[in-house]
Structures
1.
Amino acid sequence: MTFRTFPKAELHLHIEGAAPPKLIAGLAREKSVDIAGVFDERGNYAYRDFLQFLKVYEAATQVLQTPEDYRRLTLAVLEESAAHGVVYSEAFLSPDFCGGGDLAAWREYLHAIREAADQAEREMGITLRGVVTCVRHFGPEQAKKTALCAAETADDWLCGFGMGGDENAGEQGDFAYSFDMAREAGLRLTTHAGEWRGPEEVRAAVRDLRVERVGHGVRVIEDLALVDELIEKDVVLEVCPGSNVMLGVYPKLAAHPIEKLRERGIKVTVSTDDPPFFHTDMTKEYEGLARVFEWNEDDFKALNQTALAAAFCDDATRDRIA
Ligand code: ADE
Ligand code: ZN
């Protein structure tokens, strides 16, 4: 089967982390911004470990300075996703990088991103929805500003709120105020947990932030009672196998727990996270799962049904895509 054209839904994609290196390098030249250290000699993003990855990620965002830059970024990202058969994508959007958490600025960035999304939908048949994300290592006070941006712009398109960044910075519960604000504005919730820290972190995410999806969450495999609790609560995992292998959470795909988690009965979905950083795309993710775990067409169909059912979009959008 040809995986490239197989219709896919992707729920976990950071828009800046999906930036083609050429776009970032081109913007750096145009604006004369020095981003030394972001790329290796071959023009790939260069980092050694997770914390350096976060630094390089943030350094690359320094060239994304205007709504027009985000319009170009969004188009480039969606073009790449559509080329890999993605028909529905949820992207993490960061008011922290789009105007520093200022609401008026954020509105302008969001407008530009949505213009690009409309164009991509018309021209490439890919549907994008936005999930505002706060950055954990920027701290709870900054997250409140981010949550306010999210709450003030929440609608059918801007439909979720989440948190990424360094999982070792503070506790999930430190961000409860922001997640409560987002929930009250009607936003659906997800947070990165169980990528670096163990099962206890996922337990805290569900208990303290009341999220319905978890970004990564793979380390719950270390606590089967928790896996069963998550099944009972219908929590869905946004699993990013290529990301986990590239960042060293697992040494190789064969050691990744996605198959064990699926067998146990927890709902898993598959995404790329930050594709150029991890030298991956949705085609490669599917090819890997087929090769290593012998997933077949029916498995991938079921995977996408799970993803669409867990998508934060409204039912009319879901029905149109399914
Ligand atoms: N931001 C972008 N990618 C991330 C990841 N894999 N974990 C946490 N924060 C992120
Ligand atoms: Zn992520």
2.
Amino acid sequence: LSPAQWRSQSIYQVITDRFARTDGSTSAFCDVNRYCGGTWQGLINKLDYIQNMGFSAVWISPVVQNFAQSTDDGDSYHGYWATNIYEVNTNFGAAADLIKLSSALHARGMYLMVDIAPNHMGYPGCPTCVDYSIFTPFNKQSYFHPYCTINDADDTSVKQCWLGSNNVPLPDLRTEDTAVQDIFNSWVSQLVKNYTIDGLRIDTAKHVNTGFWEPFLQAAGGIYAVGEVLNGDPKYVCPYQNYMPGVLNYPTYYTMTQAFQSTGGSISNLVNGVNQMRTTCADTTLLGSFLENHDQPRFPSYTSDVSLTKNAIAFTILQDGIPIIYQGQEQFFRGGEVPADREALWTSGYSTTSTFYTFIKQVNGLRNWAKQKDTSYLSYKAQVSSPDSRTIVMRKGSVVSVHNNRGANGAASLTLSSSATGFTSGQSVMEILTCKAYAADSNGNLAISITDGLPQVFYPTSALSGSGICAGA
Ligand code: ABC
Ligand code: CA
């Protein structure tokens, strides 16, 4: 699937080990440091749960074989500690099960994104005692950079030194060498074909020489790839769009989290941050938009306020880029630092009536309708403005969303100006989260009131007919 085709998807992020077991258990114990039993077959059995929330694609954790030893850093359940890139991780099933997952998704008109990590392998022992012969195919020390620890201020060190710890070092591959590149290029070409993969999530993209990516992604068949460049600065992150079509929107992750995590968060920093992304990135509509992932404390670990969380989730789904919701957000999971943020989803019983399952479904539903109604919606670059210090208004095509950080007890009356919304004189609009009808005044301005600190999403009433949203208005 091409970058342009991915623009219209909505992604659900799965940690395979923690999403669903083959036996469908909702009570199996999960020690968050160990393998907990999730499988590709378990995931296949629960695709309705994902699709009914409005998602069209699933990002799964890395699929290749990892070492089996338990370590003081835990087990390799997340999949980032590769030992053999030609075999699958049998904890998740056989290669045939992965093929079956891909087919099951495609049969529903959904897509598969696979996480890959060509930067390193993983070793269960000290950094200077690595036995390279355990790696396939990188079975010699000459495929790797010598051991050193990363100094963020030095780009050569970021690219060539080793991630990981003294318990589990991540031997860093010489991705600038033709020998390593050739192996990875044929590997990715085969991987994408063997499992009919539609998109890639590129782990540790900032730790690989930038010249590696163009031939690699070409070998992958030109499918969409979104890179992980873990940095909060747009000037650092955006240039990666020169090497891969998408990048995870970490800069806005930081400003958004800060803005909505408390009633004292800075909305003006969020406005500035969004504007800076738009002017710095080649194409914000191809970024991966997220509020949570498996590396960061969950948003509700900062606040238990449902309204603040709804504001942040709505912002994630409606801002520029491809929304990515991490498993457990729909069940209001509250885990903090790794590994607490990697709870087994099955303990939720896969409720489809929970507050956030239904909320995400509503917002995804509006985005899915808007993109179908207006072909320019997804490539429209959102414009943000701030009518007061607690509120951000985001206009993307004909979707106008209003997000605030007043919290569950917050109330306010304010006027959205026609210049911020694009509403015309007397225009009828629907607030689709409450199905309340509004009309702009003769100047196109709209008077609204915020209650319980909730976000609001306005959409032209005339464009709702046939949608089923708010009974098709
Ligand atoms: C984790 C912990 C370890 C712990 C271990 C048990 O569990 O990090 O401390 O000892 C996998 C596992 C992890 C495991 C690691 C290492 O392997 O999932 O549980 O460690 O064994 C990706 C994946 C991630 C994966 C890997 C490795 C990479 O998403 O799940 O981890 O394949 C760096 C990398 C980034 C990586 C991340 C975990 O580490 O760049 O690719 N994620 C600074 C640095 C970043 C650094 C970040 C976190 O700290 O610049 O490079 O990320 O350590 C902003 C700044 C940023 C700054 C942040 C904190 O603040 O702009 O520069 O980031 O404002
Ligand atoms: Ca590297």
